[in-house]
Design a protein that fits this description.
55% of the residues lie in helices and 0% in strands. The radius of gyration is 13 Å and the shape is globular. It is mainly alpha-helical.
Length: 95
């Protein structure tokens, strides 16, 4: 399955789930496979679930901005979440 780039940039997770008829976990796998985290996405305001925490732990080669794109969050919101959960050592550092 493939998510169109225009959909990724302009749709919320709920809209993506409905359009493609897939689960949130499947969306995250597609995001990583297609490297959609390289593109800005719609910013959603929601709390992180255990699933998001799991993907942060699995994706330790992404920068904060890439994680923010992946989870449809602002950079600052993502940074606060990373620091609050103690994941700061798991992210990719910019050179």
């Amino acid at each position: 399955m493939k998510i169109e780039l225009s959909d990724w940039k302009h749709m919320t997770y709920e809209q993506l789930e409905n359009k493609y008829n897939i689960s949130r976990e499947q969306i995250y796998k597609i995001i990583l496979d297609q490297k959609l985290y390289l593109h800005r996405s719609v910013i959603e305001r929601y709390r992180f679930s255990e699933l998001e925490h799991l993907y942060i732990l699995k994706s330790n080669n992404l920068s904060i901005s890439q994680l923010a794109n992946m989870f449809h969050k602002s950079y600052n919101a993502m940074l606060m979440q990373i620091k609050a959960k103690g994941y700061y050592d798991r992210i990719k550092y910019r050179k």
